[in-house]
Amino acid sequence: MAKKFNGSFLALMSTGSDYCNHQRFWPLQGAGKPLWEFKEHDHRLYCYRQVARDSKFVRIVLLYGWAKDKAGRTKREDREIAKAMSLYGEFESEQHGGAR
Fold first, then answer.
1. 7 inside domain
2. Please, which contacts does 93-97 make with residues 24 or more away whose CB atoms are closer than 8 Å?
3. Mean pLDDT in each 10-residue stretch from start to end of the chain (100 residues)?
């Protein structure tokens, strides 16, 4: 699976915060904000993208991945995004010392 996403990861590492590929890496909208999505065919990885102030340095925290089995938006996709958002909430809580 790592090989599938290797191209996107390498492009992100070399480009930094300017990297956005609207077919393979983009920000989620609506209930998925502030998460980003890596996409390789039917596989999805949701992550949190944090850009350092006044820098091209970007930190990516991978949160959750899954394999999509149908074309188009599905209820399952909404559930998978909700799982990733839950993990993001846990991450944020840990970052702030558990006091949230």
1. yes
2. none
3. 87 86 90 94 93 83 92 90 96 78
Domain assignment of residue 100, yes or no: no
Which two three-digit tokens encode residue 87? 């993990």
pTM confidence score: 0.84
Neighbouring-strand partners of residue 23: none
Q: What single letter denotes the amino acid at residue 99?
A: A
Number of domains in the chain: 1
Nearby residues of 35 by Cβ (< 8 Å), 6 or more positions away: 27, 28, 46, 47, 48, 63, 81, 84, 85, 88
Helix (H, G, I), strand (E, B) or coil at 26: strand
Whether residue 78 is contained in a domain is answered as: yes
Distance CA 45, CA 26 (A): 11
Q: Determine if the peptide bond prior to 34 is cis (ω within 30°).
A: yes
